[in-house]
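Example record used in the benchmark description.
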Amino acid sequence: MIARVLVIAGSDSGGGAGIQADIKTITMLGGHAMTAITALTAQNTLGVEGVMPVPAAFVLEQIDTVVADIGVDAVKIGMIGSAETAHAVADRLKGIGVPVVFDPVMVATSGSVLADDATIAAFERLLAVATVATPNAPELEALGGVEAVLAHGCHLVIKGGHVDGPRVIDRLLSPTGQLLRELDGKRIDTDDTHGTGCTFASALATGLAQGRPIDEAFATAVRFVRIALINAPGLGQGQGPMGHALGYNPFEELEG
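Model output (structure tokens):
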């Protein structure tokens, strides 16, 4: 059966991040994407112009509706929308019995704030139900650092994209702090980095939904992000979207 990945996240009207990036990533990696949209945003490569949160009760209705019928093999949480939604989602995911990837989205690539202080404080509830957390460097600092995140009992990905230097080093830690995998790659010189965090977390969730060991799913997610960066289409006037199609158009090779 195809791996079923439920994404709980916000919509990006520019198509580079959020739900749009999640669906493209999961599809390209062979999974089936389902969504519970937490917020609508009006944004492009230059920034976020507006945010409209979805009521927490309706977020839960989306989750319950797809899980009851289609089922789920992994969950990815991105932009959560509000503190109320964070608490509601955490309650709903308790004991769900599948891997949960939590990408604690706080600020968009453009610098726009996507989570207020109350929402960030509620992230502790989501960390408690997560299998693995994937914050970038500033988000990890805002969550209290490595030890504070690991105290919740989840794996942790320490991403190197926001750390200066010619190399990008990504690390996967176990809940006890053991280094499970480290990947060292040359930094890709591009401004088209919108949606990297969303894309990585969804790729990781897809691998886990497919039953892969977490270190293998981590390596695949890093590789997918790198290839998507290399194949960015160069859209927009700011930080453009990645090339989720990886420079490949399978439709042209099919008959029917």
